[in-house]
Amino acid sequence: MLKLSYSDFKFECGTDEAGRGCLAGPVTAAAVILPTSFSNHILNDSKQLSEKKREVLKPIIESEAITFGVAHVFQDTIDRINILNASILAMHKSIDKLQQVPEYIIVDGNKFKPYHNIPFETIVKGDGQFLSIAAASVLAKTHRDIYMNKIHNEYPMYNWKQNKGYPTIEHREAIKKYGITKYHRKSFRLLPEQLKLEL
Prior knowledge:
This protein is an alpha/beta fold and 199 residues long. It has helices at 51-64, 75-81, 83-96, 131-152, 160-163, 169-178, and strands spanning 12-18, 27-33, 67-73, 104-108, 120-123.
C-alpha cells in the first residue's frame, strides 16, 4: 500500500493533474485530504489503474476523504499562459475548493508555485508513493474523462470518448481531415508537421 502522509501535519493535501499532454480539452486537477484512518490497497497512480478500477475508486475517495476539490482549466487559458502554468493554476483552483484549509501540500511532479504561504513539497512520481496524491490523480483523471465524454457527443469524429484528447494517430488524422474545434489547444503542435492547419 502507498504511504499515507509525507509530513506530520493532520491536514496534508495531495494534488495532481490530468490531461497535460492532450491536444484538446482542459487540464484538470484535484486536491484531496484523506483521514489518518484511510487505507486502500488498490489505490495507485491513475495511469497504473484500469478505467474500471478508477471508476470503482472515485466514489470511495469522494466519500471517505475529509475534503476534495476538482478544477478544470480550459484550452483558452492554456493557450494564453502555457500548459505548465495552467497545470499549476488548476491545482491551486482545486485546493481553493477544499472545505478544510490544508496545513501542508504535497504535489506530484517537480513544479509548483506557493499557495497562500502553506508549506509544500513537490515529489517526482508522488502519485505512485502517497495515497493522497494517488487519490487526486484518480479524481483528476475520472472527472476529466467525464468532461471529454460529454464533448465527444458534440464532435464524435475525433473520438474523444476513446482517446480523451490525447495525441493518438486517430486523433491527429481527424485533425488533418476536419481541422480543429473550439476545444483544441491552438498553442500545441496539433500535427507533427503543423502544415496548412486552418486556425
